[in-house]
Amino acid sequence: MPQRRFTTDRRRAKQGLLAIAFAGLCFASGAFAVSDSFAQARKVPTRLTDEVREFCANIIDAARDRRYAVQAQELEKLRTEIDDRIAALEAKRAEYEDWLKRREQVIDSAEDSIVGIYARMRPDAAAERLEKMDAMLAAAIVLKLNHRQAGVILNEMEARAAARLTSIIADVAKSENPT
């Protein structure tokens, strides 16, 4: 059965292509006339006969239907691509909202009183303690210190810890869209 179905589908496809090609020939010829250069190259009469004209008139609806079907397939394909892009944009939006939420949490987590304590500490002692605490909290504290104090404390930190805090602060301080 599948072999028969394949043969039938193939035959229909051939008929459809032939009909489309012939309809194209009919339309390309303008008022059902074949161009002189084409007629000379193919040795086709310059004027179409009544039979050909009638055949073209009979298959015009089938050709139009086939053209609409092809256009509908293309539109469906475009719709699928648009849906995929919308899904990708929604994922980016969710990522952005997550980033924004984490940023707010980091800023809120550093209470002013804790910041005041670290602001009054010696820079080497503050650096030592900030290195040992959660990086996000340490970054929030450093972010709320004034620039001079933050620079001195980061200078006293181990280079790797200072770089990690600086990276977090840079990510949080970005004013542009992270995407």
TrEMBL record:
The keyword Signal applies. Residues 1-33 form the signal peptide. It comes from the Bacteria. Keywords: Signal. The keyword Signal applies. This is MotE family protein. The lineage of its organism: Bacteria, Pseudomonadati, Pseudomonadota, Alphaproteobacteria, Hyphomicrobiales.
